[in-house]
Amino acid sequence: PQHVVLYPLVSKSLRNIAAGKDPLEGQRHCCSIAQLHDHYSLGYPDLDELQKNPQPLIFDIEVLKVEAPGSYQQDPWAMTDEEKLQAVPLIHKEGNELYRQGKVQEAAAKYYDAIACLKNLQMKEQPGSPDWIELDQKITPLLLNYCQCKLQCEEYYEVLDHCSSILNKYEDNVKAYFKRGKAHAAVWNVAEAQADFAKVLALDPSLRPVVSKELRSLEARLREKDAEDKIRFKGIFSQ
Predict the structure, then answer these.
(1) pTM, rounded to two decimals
(2) What superfamily does domain 75-153 belong to in CATH?
(3) Which residues are CB-contacts of 197 (< 8 A; sequence separation ≥ 6)?
(4) Could you report the per-residue pLDDT of 134-160, keeping only the tens digit for each?
């Protein structure tokens, strides 16, 4: 007899990997039989049917590409702790190169992978411990790079969330204030943007030319918006 009763769980994990998800998403730490009973559905009708009626399987394997020895890069979830630490600087470098090439979305994905490696290691440390803090200080510049990508992709609320999380821990991080200020300005949080830019100047007065440019841009957009609103409301009230 063919032993395929657990294959549906294996297939679900493989499908999660193909979708860029954690292969163990939705699974608890228990034996495989308990997993079968614990889940009414695996989320895929064909796997549910195979789980109910196990039968021999034939696999067709197609070679998609051949990679040179040493060129294969593991996904972060498959790495050991040591491999994660070794991979982070390389992934960071790849992200920087993609960003310089103008491939912002691809760069963000690299920064995200590097952050995921470090976050996974950080979860194993006591919050606030020296090792935890050391990892957090490695995460912060990567997260700021990620936020720069998100600014260019106009995903401003994600930037607000991440920069605020950094500033909750590091109140003197100039880059986090500056990026958060730009995100606030983009979503018309005028007072918040001005406060963040003021904090940037207080921490680093040499950035006055850059901050002045951002404030002038914000003021110009406000004047343009006021003019548009006057025309719009004039049309409403004249009807």
Answers:
(1) 0.69
(2) Tetratricopeptide repeat domain (1.25.40.10)
(3) 177, 178, 181, 211, 214, 215
(4) 999 999 999 999 999 999 999 999 999
